[in-house]
Amino acid sequence: MRRRRNFLASFFILFAAGIVLFLLWQFTPVKVISVFMGRAISSAEFSVITIFTSSQVNNNPEAKLANQNKQLLEKLAKFEILLKENNALLDQFQTVYPRSDTLLPAEIVAKPSFVPGITSPLEFILNKGKIDGVKKGQAVIFKSNLVGEIQDTNEAFSVVSLVTSNKFSITAHTLRSGALGVVRGEGASSISFNNILPSADLKEGDIVVSTGSLDTQGVGIPPDLIVGKIVSIIKNPSAIFQTAEIESLVDFSKLSMVFIITKPR
Question: What is the pTM of this model?
Answer without folding.
Answer: 0.67
